């Protein structure tokens, strides 16, 4: 009998293979990120994952993927300003990019 930990590990390895194949086959970035978020959401209880992408001018973050991310929150959270006076999280993005 397979333990829950083994089952989760197999699921994550399968997702990793699927995502790497998608990248190699030039699947769109948004499809890959969406699949990544769905994998995280399915394997980690109590989590709603999302990926934010920085716009070219480096001043805002936009939702790149997050299929379970609440629609109403998307409307108020994005675009998320980046800068020294921005809310929590955005200054971290500014320092690391």
Question: What is the gist of this entry?
Answer:
This protein has 97 residues and is an alpha+beta fold.
Question: Can you walk me through this structure?
Answer:
The chain has one domain (4-96). The longest helix is centred in the first third of the chain and has 21 residues, at 4-24. A three-stranded antiparallel sheet has the order 1-2-3. The chain contains four helices and three strands, in the order ααββαβα. 52% of the residues lie in helices and 12% in strands.
**Roughly what percent helix?**
40-55%
Order of helices and strands: HHEEHEH
Low-pLDDT runs of 5+ residues are none
Quaternary class: single chain
Which band does the percent of strand residues land in? Answer: 5-15%
Overall shape? globular
Total domain units: 1
Total count of helical runs of at least 4 residues: 4
Main pleated-sheet profile:
3 strands, antiparallel
Radius of gyration: 16 Å
Q: What is the number of E strands?
A: 3
How is the largest sheet built, in terms of strand order? 1-2-3
Overall pLDDT confidence: 86
Termini, distance in Å?
45 Å
